[in-house]
Design a protein that fits this description.
Jelly Rolls, eight-stranded mixed beta sheet, about 20% strand, alpha+beta, about 300 residues
C-alpha cells in the first residue's frame, strides 16, 4: 500500500508561504500534518501510560464507567461502528475508548445539560486526570491556532472560524487498539475504526505508527497509508468545516486497519481531539450541534 503525501505545516513559521499548500491539501484529502505545536512529548506519553493501565483492568472494573457513544466514560468493545455514519453496515469497531468532553458550563441549562456535563475520571488511575486536563487546555489553544491558519488559507480573515469558538464544545477520545489476543480474528469488513468522515470542525490527532494504522482516502488515489511524523500532529477537517467552505475543502475520509495478521500482538493508542464551534452556530442552514448529535447517534453499534 502506497503512502499518501501530505504537507507538513510549521506553526512557528509565517503562514503566508504555507497557505497554498494548506488549501491544496484540504481540497484533495482533508488532511495536514502540523508541527511547531509546543505540546510536550512527556505529556502525551504520560496520558498513554495512564490510559494503558485503565484499559488493562479487568472488564468488570471498566464496566463501572461504561457509556454510550457521546457519553463521558468508557466505550467498550463493540460500542461503535463508525462505518454506519456513511451508511455502511460494518461490524463493530475493534477498539476501546476513554471519552471526555467540554465541562465548563455556559449558564444555559438546556445547552449545559447536553454538551457541558462533568467528566468521569477513573478512580483506579488518579494520575490520568491532571494529565488529560493539561492536554485539553493545550489542545484548545492549538485548535484555535489551526483555525486561524485555515481562515487565512480560505482567503478570509484569521478569525473567520475562531469568532465562533468563544465557548466551544469538544470531545476527546483516548482510543486503544489492542492486538488479536483480545479482539480475536477480525470479521470480513471489520476495522479498528471503519471508514468514515469526522462530523464537525477540525480534529487533531496524536497517533502511533503501526501496520494496523491510519489510512486516508482520496478520489485520485483511493486508500493510502497516512504518513507518520513523530513530531507532528495529524489534522483533518470534518463535515461541518467542509460545508462551511461551501464544499471547497473535503471532509477527510479515513479508517484504521484491523490488527494485522503478520503482527497480531500490535497494540496502538491514539489521542483524538475533536474541536467544534459554539452551540447554536448555524452553517449554511445546518445547526451545527443538531448535526453532531445525529451523527454520534448513528455510529452507536447498539443503536
Amino acid at each position: 500500500m502506497a503512502e499518501a503525501t501530505l504537507p507538513v505545516i510549521d506553526l512557528r513559521r509565517e503562514p503566508a508561504g504555507q497557505l497554498p499548500a494548506v488549501d491544496l491539501a484540504l481540497r484533495r484529502a482533508g488532511f495536514l500534518l502540523v508541527t511547531g505545536h509546543d505540546v510536550p512529548d512527556a505529556l502525551r506519553a504520560g496520558i498513554r501510560d495512564g490510559a494503558r493501565t485503565f484499559f488493562h483492568l479487568p472488564p468488570e472494573a471498566k464496566e463501572r464507567y461504561a457509556v454510550r457513544v457521546g457519553g463521558r466514560g468508557w466505550l467498550g468493545p463493540g460500542a461503535e461502528a463508525n462505518g454506519y455514519a456513511e451508511g455502511t453496515a460494518t461490524p463493530p469497531d475493534l477498539k476501546e475508548s476513554l471519552s471526555f468532553a467540554a465541562d465548563e458550563p455556559t449558564g444555559d441549562p438546556a445547552v449545559d445539560a447536553e454538551w457541558f456535563l462533568p467528566n468521569t475520571w477513573p478512580a483506579e488511575v488518579p494520575r490520568l486526570r491532571p494529565l488529560v486536563e493539561e492536554y485539553l487546555g493545550l489542545m484548545r489553544e492549538l485548535s484555535d491556532r489551526v483555525l486561524d491558519l485555515l481562515g487565512l488559507a480560505l482567503g478570509e480573515g484569521a478569525d473567520f472560524f475562531t469568532r465562533h469558538t468563544g465557548h466551544p464544545t469538544f470531545g476527546f477520545n483516548i482510543n486503544w487498539y489492542p492486538g488479536r489476543e483480545r479482539t480475536g480474528e477480525p470479521e470480513p469488513g471489520q476495522f479498528r475504526i471503519g471508514p468514515h468522515t469526522d462530523f464537525g470542525t477540525v480534529t487533531i490527532l496524536d497517533r502511533q505508527a503501526g501496520r494496523g494504522g491510519l489510512q486516508l482516502h482520496t478520489e485520485a488515489d483511493g486508500w493510502q497509508d497516512a504518513p507518520f511524523d513523530p513530531t507532528a500532529f495529524t489534522v483533518n477537517i470534518g463535515d461541518l468545516m467542509a460545508g462551511w467552505t461551501g464544499g471547497r475543502w473535503r471532509s477527510g475520509r479515513h479508517r484504521v486497519l484491523p490488527p494485522p495478521a503478520d503482527a497480531p500482538a500490535e497494540e496502538l493508542m491514539s489521542l483524538v481531539y475533536f474541536y467544534e464551534c459554539d452551540p447554536g452556530t448555524t452553517i449554511h442552514g445546518i445547526e451545527s450541534h443538531a448535526y453532531l448529535r445525529a451523527q454520534l447517534d448513528a455510529i452507536a453499534a447498539d443503536g
